[in-house]
Amino acid sequence: MSSTLFRIGRNVFSNWVGYVVNIIVSFFLAPFMVHSLGAAGYGIWVLVGSLTGYLGVLDMGLRPAIVKFVARYKTLGDDLMVNRVVNTTLIILSFAAAIVFLASLVLSFFSVGIFKIPDEFHGQFRLIVIILGLNLAASFPFSVFAALLAAIERFDLSNAIQISVFLVRAIFLVVFLKLGGGLVAVGVIVLVAGMTEFLLKARFSLKLLPTVEINRRLADRDTFKMIAAFSGYAFIINVASRLSFQTDAIVIGAMLSAEAITSFSIGSTMVDYLLTLISYMSTTLLPLASAFEAQQNYEKLRQLLIIGTKYCVAVILPVSFAYLVLGETFINLWMGPQYGPTSAKVLAILTCGYFGFLSQFVANVIFIGLGKLKYLAYLNIGLAVVNLGLSIIFVKLFGIYGSALGTAIPLIINGSIIYPIYVCRLLKLGFMEYLRKSYLRPLLLSLPFLFLILLCHYLIDISSFGRFVMVIGIACIAHAVAVFHGVLESNHRSSLSDKVRNLLSTR
């Protein structure tokens, strides 16, 4: 058990280090890019990212399939099946990569007339679509190796590679934008950085798994059928995710303007940071959930759901409270007062919508680990269609706030009602017991955090980043103490205390 806790702790910690680095760098880089590229240029960058992101559905949900099956067969000691899974998915994804690149070429020529893009950006728009399409296409076959690192629970190594490449990429972006580079220069830097990351992950995954052999003869039809049975539903979920989370920029670009995308994306990006944080916590549990499924240990799966959800909620609540109370203050300081009021309203709407959805990320990991995706696939595609329909209707009535509402409403239905009921039935866990053990204590212990930031908001003039950091820092320290004593499981608390004491004693 101690080794399992160590692996989970190491993986979550490494994910969080990557997250913190991403936040810090993006904090400085995002406003720099907005002001360097201009509202229209930055809006086009976000729009192209959303457009090419839709082509990402062509990975057909294979990455979680690789993680699940490699983790399963490694647990069972079946190296032959590991090789069959790797080589079968590698062939599939190589074909998908070719389709993605061809589709990006077509998209680059036909999408200019659909969106309200200033004439002077037409040529750059086409080139950026092709460059990001190429980057996405290359990511498909190389995602096999990234999934291998996840399957053997080496998130620490994967994050070390990502952080290193990300920092170098940020430096090059700043240098080239200062030298007068535009959208095309940004795209080329992203492409080169992506290829570097892909190659490094491939090299280290093969080094850590010497039994893995890249040989097309190891791919076979039976393995393809097994993977397809799982990934088909994962593909539907992936499509639904793209519709839910990458629709807004496209709807706004088609019905409003590129500049409006920038105002919306500032608020939505802050929610994306929270989504990434919770994703980093929960995805580290997928190999463990797959191993428990292979052992048919449902008691461990119930514990994983309750404890994992409780820890996620303990993180989601204070961030959500900070967004709702201090969101406009932060955006004014970060991006400028011209964006604060508008982007903060978008942030508030999305934050309310995302709470229940994010709290169910551990449940989603367990669904994948168990291979129970059919019901969820159709549920998610249905909600995604509702999202798209509501966004189109509401954006006509309320502008970018309507697009945010169109996203938030289906997420509330999905994450706050349907997901928790379904996971409880699946694991034969009482619904009220799940809510009480997973939500009640984190909610009560987050109230002091809310009280502190409300008090500071009304009593202190938070007119500088120094004061903002001071307020958030004090509130976070108080919340961390409350979580340590009131939310962490006793064995986790003892293990963490021992590690801290050992670390201090070595110094």
Q: Mean of the pLDDT scores?
A: 83
Number of strands: 0
Order of helices and strands: HHHHHHHHHHHHHHHHHH
Query: How many structural units, i.e. domains?
Result: 2
- Which regions are unreliable across 5 or more consecutive residues at pLDDT < 50? none
What is the CA-CA span between the terminal residues? 28 Å
What's the overall geometry? globular
Rg calculated over all Cα atoms: 23 Å
Could you outline the blueprint of secondary structure elements for this entry?
Elements: H1 2-55, H2 62-75, H3 79-110, H4 122-151, H5 155-178, H6 183-208, H7 221-245, H8 248-255, H9 258-283, H10 286-294, H11 298-334, H12 340-359, H13 361-370, H14 374-398, H15 400-426, H16 431-459, H17 465-486, H18 490-506
Q: How does this structure look, described?
A:
With 507 residues, the chain is mainly α. The chain folds into 2 domains: 1-232, no CATH class; 247-500, no CATH class. Helix content is 86%, strand content 0%. It has 18 helices and no strands. The longest helix has 54 residues, at 2-55. The two termini are 28 Å apart.
